[in-house]
Amino acid sequence: MLVGSPTRTCQPDGLWTPRPTCLRMCPRGRIEISERELGGTCNSTCAQKSYAGPIQHGCSRIDNCKKKESGWKRFFSQCVPCICDCALSCRESVSHPVARQKPRT
C-alpha cells in the first residue's frame, strides 16, 4: 500500500516534499463490521464501502466487503452487517492480536 503522495514537489525553500513509502500489508482474514463503521451511512450497500486508516477492529485496511445475509428480509433502511477482508501492516501485525476472523466462503 502506498503511503503519502505519489508525487514529490519542489517547495519554496528549495527542499522536496517527503517521499511516499511502500507499506507491506498482511492479510488477517475476514471480519464482520457494521456498514456505519465503514462509511458513516446506512444504505445497505457493503460492496462500495472500505476503510483505510488507524487500526479499527484489528485492521488498518478493510475492503472487499459483502453484505452478510441474515436469512430474513427487512423492508426498511438500516445498517447491515458486512463481511470484509481485513489487513494490517506487517510491521504492526506482530504487535496486535488477530482480528475476529470469519471463515472464507
TrEMBL record:
Superkingdom to which the source organism belongs: Eukaryota
Record-annotated Sushi domain positions: 1-24
Keyword Disulfide bond in record: yes
Keyword tags: Disulfide bond, Sushi
InterPro entries, per the entry: Sushi/SCR/CCP_sf, Sushi_SCR_CCP_dom
Name the record gives this protein: Sushi domain-containing protein
